[in-house]
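Instructor's aside before we start: the two examples that follow are unrelated to each other. I chose them only because their records fit on one page, so don't look for a connection. First example below.
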Amino acid sequence: MERTDKEVVIGEVKAKFDRMTSAVFLDFKGLNVAVVTKLRDEFRKAGVEYRVVKNSLVHHAIKHHKWANKLDGTLIGMTGIAWSYEDPSAAAKVVKAFRKEKEHEALKIKAGLIDGQILNAEGVENQLASMPGKNELRATLLATMAAPMQQFLQQLNAPLQNFVYVLKAKEDAANKAG
């Protein structure tokens, strides 16, 4: 790879780290091409970008970040990086689901990155992957916004319901008496 090619790759990787909401660093040693292709397809479906980049180029791309030196132990050996841009937990969820199958156990999580914080493999699988996704958060917000309106309508309907109950009780009492 020539120097100009390396500079282009460094620029692309730097842009991905600047734009991402989270990243997951993976060790894919021991996986065959078919399994890695399936992993890439799963990432694509979830809106996650996955790329294998030389560790030295990643070091150059992230050196301007405060957290860069914390990744020195992670950027050793074969490293694939999955960047999430919209949903911070998307990449972690894909990896966690992917690793559940027996033939995919060779895929190892090296580390995770979210908001400048480095997570170990356990943190990625237990914390980042269990965060609610964008759609789940939207549904929660919508339910929270709709709840006061529902309660207000129930309060408006309560006098009418009570009036109907009183009429029904009077009718039942009149039927028993008559």
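Example two begins here.
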Amino acid sequence: MGLIKGMIGNLHHQRRGRLLLCLTLGLACLGGSCSRAQNLVPLNIKLPAPAFIGTPSDKPLPPNVEPLSKTPRPPFLAPAGVANVALHKKVTSSATNAAAEDLAKITDGEKEATEENVVLLTKGSQWVQIDLEKPQDIYAIVLWHAHNTQKVYHGVVVQIADGPDFTPAQNVRTLFNNDNENTAGQGVGTDREYFETNEGKLIDAKGAKARYVRLYSNGSTAARYNECTEVEVYGRPAQ
């Protein structure tokens, strides 16, 4: 009888242990990455109309250019509730020709391939910078330069930071860099160049926390000057 009671006691003890373990893991998941992984949904990116259809021209291009895709971009999954936190946020630039009212177009939500939506920036490596006003958990950044014709932009670098000066002390992180000649001075990039399309370039930020976003470019296969139509930053207030 004592043996049976002991076995029953051990069984109850094991069950309580498993229950406590499950409750602990459940609470950890609710407060951490498990919850985010379970609530991933396709990101709702509203695309502008295509401005051109076809295959790349025979014009010589840099050797590290991605082929123009013939299929739509797969859905990008992010936690539920993530939105474009860059909408109508302040934009500044290294280009001295860009007025504040022109730079505001980069976060106004207008992405169609029309002349009035494109902001022209002087030639050479230039950047635009967005102040998200407070730290955000950033999951994706989508960039449209000018997608009215088949073109490839050079020296594209996308960085995030905690401060506006992008100094080492401000936790600068590079999310994308195809600047293989280091024209921006941010290091030699290993990412590939790509054709501009109405889908824009989506960059996975993997939930990184930052307040500021800076995007470099250095002309294109069509012109030496720079162009920028829209930048969207998908995130939510930092937790």
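The radius of gyration is 23 Å.
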